[in-house]
Amino acid sequence: MAASSRAQVLDLYRAMLRESKRFSAYNYRTYAVRRIRDAFRENKNVKDPVEIQTLVNKAKRDLGIIRRQCPLSSGIKSHAQGLQQRQHAVGPGCAVWKGCGMEEPSPKIMGHLNL
Amino acid sequence: MLLRAAWRRAAVAVTAAPGPKPAAPTRGLRLRVGDHAPQSAVPADTAAAPEAGPVLRPLYMDVQATTPLDPRVLDAMLPYLINYYGNPHSRTHAYGWESEAAMERARQQVASLIGADPREIIFTSGATESNNIAIKGVARFYRSRKKHLITTQTEHKCVLDSCRSLEAEGFQVTYLPVQKSGIIDLKELEAAIQPDTSLVSVMTVNNEIGVKQPIAEIGRICSSRKVYFHTDAAQAVGKIPLDVNDMKIDLMSISGHKIYGPKGVGAIYIRRRPRVRVEALQSGGGQERGMRSGTVPTPLVVGLGAACEVAQQEMEYDHKRISKLSERLIQNIMKSLPDVVMNGDPEHHYPGCINLSFAYVEGESLLMALKDVALSSGSACTSASLEPSYVLRAIGTDEDLAHSSIRFGVGRFTTEEEVDYTVEKCIQHVKRLREMSPLWEMVQDGIDLKSIKWTQH
User: Residues bearing Cysteine persulfide (chain B)?
Assistant: First the structure.
């Protein structure tokens, strides 16, 4: 399998930033965006293809985490924190806890968790 | 009607697939106050969020009290809260095996953060339980030959309380004083060690003033005098590099919810070579090597393990960032306000915990004025009483300065905007409160407050 090309890494970077912006919690959102930018910037001069592949794999795993966690944090209603101007728009309503008055765990979430 | 609602929901889901365009985190910090509109659970309605929204919650600047869960930690915990719910001590079926595998993996993650062997990690319900096990367990095991313990005056309440309860059992405890900087005097420690001392307990990073004790030196002293060394590392684990072998630590307490893990879980490190014997506090089925019976809560320990792993990876990045933000906070406050004192040694100090005393301002009133920021004066466990913190008293702070101290916490998720906002509000309110203060007026007129003879009525 060929090592990840520059284009693939950039696609991954863009996808991660895009997904991170969907966190409704201000602190998680700002952390994710900042961390992703800093991590990709820090590793931009890595030349060893094995190391690049390791980093790309880790980034893919983290992208999966962000995809799973964003809807969870949006689905649970909570008042926005300090610096937000408006309650962040909610993604497709899938929450795990029935007690919060939300629907059944979405098959999308369960699929992601490989359950 | 139902059909239309369902169609609308589906339409939102489709258009929301690439991610709804979020309102970018704002630069202009307008805190809007609206009424508490009851939130309906239908997502379609909130896509067009009303301008008059709910009251915004305060900024969180109290990370020494507790920390939010890192999303990576929650992601690791969820499968064990949903489907993999087996008891890790069930030996006969797959539910038990997979739960046990997760527990052992978490143990390995915790151990590698502190340089220990996984067999030396025992899961508990938190650092308070770990401290109790360490102090009472060691003291009681060696009760026949050793009756003396040493600790400091700035320890966490659970350590001080455990020592007090041991005193009631007939043990002797020396509470070492600390210097003005908050650090103990190593010569005093050496002088306090007696032939019948079983344990020295000194916390690594203080939760109120952020002072770092010289753990490596204390470890060296204790191991040379053959005394066990316990450290409450709840505020230090995952934030500064710790190695139990380099620092000659025999027992260490770890707390889950201080390192972006779940609440209700912690761990205790108990050295095996040379073996530290501990009398178990909690009797039962012999789980956790007999030292802490009870079913190990798999989702919580998986969370603790994940938090430790994330902390290990992020330690350098977080430390650099937190140091920068902390510098920014202190510099900006101190250059705009006179008569601000930072409690604790500025050099041997963990940057994320900043304790400032604002002279001529009452701490509680400043806290209430800063209602948009979640802060604390002193530690959460003592915040209910009106007494000034015993830690500040131990470092020799004047009574009036002790009453006016505020603890700012900077953590992994704190942003520069939050720090700037906190600084701005703090300066504004301190100035306003000082304007109202007659003491401040007198100081401005050049009167030395210490020379005043207050009359009795």
Answer: 381
